[in-house]
Structures are given as C-alpha cells and as structure tokens.
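Key result, reporting period 2: structure in, sequence out.
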C-alpha cells in the first residue's frame, strides 16, 4: 500500500519521479492570475489563527461544508474561529475524492510541517501547531509568498483602481517578488447590472472626463489602460457568460449605451451586441499594447437567490454553465484576426465538454508571433482537481502543442494556495511518466525535463514578457 502524500505523491513511475524531483519541483512560480489583495501584501499582514488564513473568503471550503450539512453559523456566521476550524476538520476527514483533501494536507505539510491527517480527532493538535507557527517569524503574507518560491504575482484590478498599493510595492526594494496589476473591466462591460450607471460615474472620476457615449466610454478606458500600463500591467482578464459574436453598427451600439444611461435595461440581444463591441474595442487595445487577453467563461453565477440576498457574490453559489457556442468563439477571434487586432489570448471554459472545441479553435489562429499564441488556459475553478487537470492536459496534447502551454495559476484569494502549483506539476509529471512507461513517448529525459520546466515556469515568463530569472 502506497503511503498518503509522501514525497512521491501521484508519481507512479520512475520517469515521473525523475521529472518532478529533477525538473519541476524547484521551479519558481509565476502566478499570472489570482485574487490576492495587493494591500495585504504591502502591509505584510499576519493572521491570528488558521481559520482566518484558511477559511476566510474560501468558497471552495464553504461549499464542501454546506454539502456536509454544516450550519452556516460555522461557515460564514458568528461561531468562533475555533468552532469553524473544528467543523472543517470534521468534514475534511471524510472528504474522500475531493481535491480539498489533497490541497489542505499539502498546505499543512508545506507551511506548517504537519505530517499527520486532519480530522475531528486531530483538530486541536493542528489548531495549536498552526497558530503557533502563524505567530512566528516569517509567517506573514509576504513570508508565505516567499516560502512558496513565487517570483511574480498578477492581481485582479478594476479600471477605477488607484493602484496605490502596487505603487508602494514597486517602491519597496525589501520585497523581491514582482507584484503587477491585471486589468479586469467587467463592471465597465456589464451594462445589464442595476449598478451600471453608478459605475460609469466612478469611471468618469478615475479618467477625469465625462462619459456620455460609447465612444467616450472607450476613450475613458484607454486613459485607464495607459495608467495600468505605466504600472507594469501586461494582461487583461474578462469573466464572460460565453464568448459572443454579435456585430452591430456603431450607431446601434451608441443607442444601446445611451438608452442604458437613461435608465433602460438592455434586451438580451442588445446586451450581446454591446458586449461584442466592448470586447472588440478592448482586444484591439490589448493587441496594440502587446498585452495578453484572458477570457474566462462557462460559469453561471449566484444561483441561490436567498443566499445571494444574504451574502452577495463570490460566496459559493455558482455552477458550471453548458452554453458556450464554439462557433461564436471562433467567429469572435476570426473577426479580430481579420482586422489585425487579435492579441495573444488565453481561453478558459469552466465546462470540460468545451476542451476539444477550445483546442481545435486554437489551431486556427496560431502563427510565429508567439509559441502558443492562442492558449487553452489551465483547468479552472471546479476543474482544479486530478481529473480536470488531466483532461485539460491530455486534450491540449492531443489537439495542440502541450509543450507551449503557459501552465498553472492559483485563481485564489488565499496566501496558502500555492501548493496547487505543486499538485499540478505532479499531475503533469505523472502523465508524462505514464506515456514513457507505455511507450507512447521515447525515454528522452532531457527533452522531457525541458518541457516540464517550460510548462512550470519558462513558457509563462516568455509569453507574458516578464523577463524573469534563469533557473
């Protein structure tokens, strides 16, 4: 019987063990998409206990606890931190097959040195150990990042953000990790939201200009793009229901925007036309500036109206959507290519049924401007598990060029999430090892090590243009 989570966890062949320990293990991390707070990084915050750093804001864990019938009091309610931790430990002990069982134990090992198993009986032991560590030297937000061998972080930032904390981090020579903003203009695009006029007013203030037309909206966003670019931003990110193709005349788009500013919500058709115009305008700017465009889609959000009213968004009530027409995705990219405005682009779908569609779309738009100019993004959110990662890697290998893949991201709000990169790298090396063992690929370990290092670190470095260190 193989021991749980030993040094060769998931590495089921000799080739996999060689590739992980000699190539992947020591690669630094480029976390090009996350939701960490730049303010918390700058202020180098220290958490009082493991509940605060582990369970606060983590809707992955909240969903698991709700599924196990834990009352909300012990999840996001007024129970004590010790009580919340106890409930999570009780649930985790029985979470067989859930990636949180692996992630949580990897985090306990890597950050706190705990080699045991967290469950209802060991909760007090782990609580005492972790809390003592969190009060020791180096266990601050910056320290946790440094322990994880991270060299670049891209946060997620709204166009109206002042980027104050990024400025302070850039001026702080004592912290060697590069922290850059990433442009996330969803609020400027989502005119169907009730709060849209208020957001436009905030954008007016940030850009220092009046916005009374769609052309004015794009001009204001260009000003903010300049501001973000001056702070080192190199990539954007968009959360879409799907990638739409809905061309409309400029006059019609202006009419839709004007009507919205006057208080009328758009129809579904008008919303698609506006968002298509918005996305094509933004893509052209990204291409001109040499930025990467990330498109996350395939999620239906805030499905529980009772809990949404009580708790708001991003609290664990989202699901996979099965509506993502590949014809429109391809047509959108094709229109950008035809106009000379297609930037380097990463496509992520939350629905694994879209893997083959994405991987065949990629091949329509690759060229010699970049290795993997159009990318199939890492298995995302509900796919951040053994099967989801394996399926994404194998689909990309079968239908595209896996050696050019830019690799893993955390997509997390937690400073303890970096062992997910280790989890990904172990799965990557496991797949390669199995292919060598089964004769699917030659036992060319030097080439395989190069591919592993590239996917773990170098491809992202080259693709985004970070110009980081040689390892």
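The corresponding designed sequence is given below.
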């Amino acid at each position: 019987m193989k021991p749980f989570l030993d040094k060769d966890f998931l590495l089921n062949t000799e080739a996999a063990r060689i590739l992980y320990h000699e190539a992947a293990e020591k690669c630094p991390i480029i976390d090009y998409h996350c939701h960490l707070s730049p303010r918390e990084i700058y202020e180098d915050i220290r958490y009082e206990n493991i509940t605060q750093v582990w369970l606060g804001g983590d809707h992955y864990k909240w969903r698991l606890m709700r599924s196990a019938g834990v009352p909300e009091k012990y999840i996001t309610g007024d129970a004590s931190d010790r009580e919340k931790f106890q409930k999570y430990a009780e649930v985790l002990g029985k979470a067989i097959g859930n990636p949180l069982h692996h992630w949580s134990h990897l985090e306990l090992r890597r950050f706190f040195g705990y080699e045991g198993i967290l469950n209802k009986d060991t909760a007090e032991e782990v609580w005492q150990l972790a809390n003592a560590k969190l009060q020791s030297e180096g266990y601050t937000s910056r320290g946790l990042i440094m322990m994880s061998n991270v060299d670049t972080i891209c946060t997620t930032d709204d166009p109206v953000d002042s980027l104050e904390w990024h400025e302070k981090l850039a001026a702080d020579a004592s912290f060697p990790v590069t922290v850059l903003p990433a442009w996330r203009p969803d609020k400027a695009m989502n005119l169907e939201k009730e709060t849209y006029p208020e957001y436009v007013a905030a954008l007016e203030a940030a850009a220092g200009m009046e916005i009374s037309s769609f052309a004015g909206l794009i001009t204001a966003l260009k000003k903010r793009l300049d501001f973000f670019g001056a702070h080192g931003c190199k990539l954007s990110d968009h959360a879409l229901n799907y990638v739409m193709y809905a061309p409309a005349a400029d006059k019609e788009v202006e009419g839709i925007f004007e009507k919205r500013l006057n208080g009328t919500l758009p129809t579904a058709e008008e919303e698609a036309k506006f968002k298509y115009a918005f996305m094509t305008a933004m893509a052209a700017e990204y291409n001109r500036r040499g930025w990467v465009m990330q498109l996350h889609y395939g999620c239906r959000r805030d499905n529980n109206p009772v809990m949404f009213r009580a708790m708001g968004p991003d609290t664990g009530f989202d699901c996979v959507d099965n509506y993502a027409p590949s014809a429109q995705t391809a047509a959108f990219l094709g229109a950008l290519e035809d106009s000379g405005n297609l930037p380097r682009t990463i496509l992520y779908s939350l629905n694994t049924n879209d893997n083959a569609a994405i991987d065949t779309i990629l091949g329509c738009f690759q060229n010699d401007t970049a290795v993997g100019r159009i990318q199939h993004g890492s298995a995302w959110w509900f796919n951040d598990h053994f099967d989801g990662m394996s399926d994404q890697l194998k689909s990309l290998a079968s239908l595209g060029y896996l050696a050019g893949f830019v690799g893993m991201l955390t997509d997390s709000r937690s400073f303890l999430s970096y062992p997910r990169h280790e989890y990904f790298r172990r799965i990557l090396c496991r797949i390669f090892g199995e292919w060598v063992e089964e004769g699917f690929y030659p036992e060319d370990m030097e080439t395989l090590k190069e591919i592993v290092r590239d996917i773990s670190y170098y491809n992202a470095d080259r693709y985004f243009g970070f110009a980081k260190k040689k390892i």
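The chain is about 50% helix and 5% strand. Residues 268-289 form the longest helix (22 residues). This case is discussed further under Risks and Mitigation.
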